[in-house]
Amino acid sequence: MDQDGINSKDFIIGALIGGIVGATTALFLAPKSGRELREGLTQQANAVKDKTTKLTNDAYEKGTQFISIAKEKTASASQAISEQSAQIIDKVKEISGSSSEELTEQQLEVREEEVSDHQAVMEGTELNKEESIKDLEENIVKSNA
Q: Cα–Cα distance between 82 and 122 in angstroms, integer?
């Protein structure tokens, strides 16, 4: 996916440079006075500026959309993990309450380890979510630069 982004960016840059070179060449080869030539160059420069501004705004809007989608998906995943963790904790409490005589100390430790492992996975997911959001924001800033 990164390769496709680079190729698209290179294509757009190449198209803009090619358009500028072509327009400039056409203006220089056309028989016009200096004043007409300068006016034509000014018009072409303004057109390129407008197109560049539009492309920049479009890229920024798409980047903002991607960030909001990523935030929504990570929030829903985090919520699902929290719910599953709560269910596991409830089951452990239920098991320990209903058959506390049958459970040995070792079994309780194993269940507590399972819960702490699940909580560690949740914390890792939170960190990955924050890193993903930061990466997306950095990519948007780089693409706008």
A: 7
Residues 94, 55: Cα–Cα separation, whole Å? 58
Q: Say which residues have a Cβ less than 8 Å from residue 37's Cβ, sequence separation at least 6.
A: 27, 28
Report residue 46 as tokens.
């303004």
Quote the CA–CA distance of 52 and 34 in Å, as a whole number.
27
Structure tokens at 79: 């919520």
Q: What is the DSSP string of 21-80?
A: HHHHHHHHHS---HHHHHHHHHHHHHHHHHHHHHHHHHHHHHHHHHHHHHHHHHHHHHHH
pLDDT digits (tens, 9 = 90+) for 8-48: 788 888 888 888 888 878 767 777 677 777 787 788 889 98
